[in-house]
Amino acid sequence: MDARHAELRQRLAALGFDDVRFAALTPSPGGGLREWLASGHQADMQWMERTAEKRLDPQLVLPGAKSVIMLGVNYWSDKFRHPPSAIGHPRWARYALHEDYHDTIKPGLAVAGGVLEEIFGVRGTDYRYYVDTGPVLEREWAARAGIGFVGKNAMMISRRHGNWLLLAAIFTKIELTTDEPIRKKFRNQEAGKGPGVGLLCGKCTRCLDACPTEAFPRPGVVDSRRCISYQTIENKGIIPRELRPGIGNRIYGCDVCLEVCPWNRFAREGRRLLVAARGEIAELTLREILELTPVRFAEIFRRTPIKRLKLAGLLRNACIVAGNSGDATRLPQLVRLATMHASALVRAHAVWAVFRLGGGAQLAPARAVEMNGDVLAEYVAG
Ligand code: B12
Prior knowledge:
By secondary structure, the chain is of the alpha+beta class.
């Protein structure tokens, strides 16, 4: 590998990327994604369908692209112990206890682009970078570049960082010498099929067994319709009634299939050059969350991914957590939300929670308020 590759790797690592690896950009065989979409596993994420062709063929994203620089950012922190599970204390996905990683990693990618220009003499039109939201199969490229392997939980699992790695990609027209996948014999593995999934999982099925909503139709494949992460973050409407008990105290996202993975034992505190902790969010009690006003919501969740859920979305999730808490002292707050909140979405989930906590009788005066559309169905079926 020539000296420029080594310099590139070293300078990107210095920017805060914990893994820097290269792969050739050939079209994806596509089996995994096509099958996933055909099975409806994308739920209401229509953008996954709209961008499928681009995801499968990097030439549609950057004509002339030859290589991808795959980057991993370790966001593990030992400090983020969730408070011992006091009844109904909400749990957040770990990545959400940080400033929005899209906003903190992107500036790093912009600087990385400058580094490419400097070392290889290319122009801004010779590369494109993405973190999460681009039409890019990030885990596929990460697997090919050898960042880690795709686990039975569908995660890109790193032997150095476990499951706690965020991914970013730079497509480039530069022809980089590629790194090997972690086992050479899987280099040509058809994506998403066969032994490529769960390469280093062995017989372990902890993630599949632990999923409270049975979201894995088979190892390595997530059905978003049943995934708590999808339901509590991406779904903007009613959360299916049958999934609510399984959501337990997860208020935003879900890490269950990540947390139980034995590979996490290798995870070390991240350098945190590209992620900024907002661990104080984990200290919020359910009571405080149920009382949030729009102004407090904006203040507390500023610059975090949670802000995109908006107050009504968070209250919807909080109602489910409260309903699952078994804590009847939450009833006055829930009855108030069920009868008075401006959002029908919140009212509907609050009504469910009130019934689940055995307080249905307290809702009689609310009946008229709830008599419309979806919400009526929610209320009557209480
Ligand atoms: C849509 C999406 C979701 C959806 C669907 C999840 C899913 N499993 O597809 C929902 C909302 C449910 C979701 C949830 C989460 N997500 Co998400 N999500 C995405 C997104 C935008 C697209 C994923 C996608 O294309 N899915 C379609 C399926 C078919 O693709 P895939 O799972 O990537 O599978 C491919 C590879 O596994 C490959 N493959 C399998 N085996 C092998 C073997 C070899 C050798 C090769 C070459 C390829 C290969 O085949 C598949 C097709 O190419 C990516 C960002 C991105 N642009 O890629 C983030 C991303 C996958 N999400 C991420 C995170 C952190 C999460 C959550 C942990 C968040 C949380 N705590 O709540 C959960 C985890 C759920 C889970 N177990 O997957 C990270 C994952 C990082 C990592 N280390 O894997 C990503 C990469 C975002 C990022 N930039 O960091 N997510």
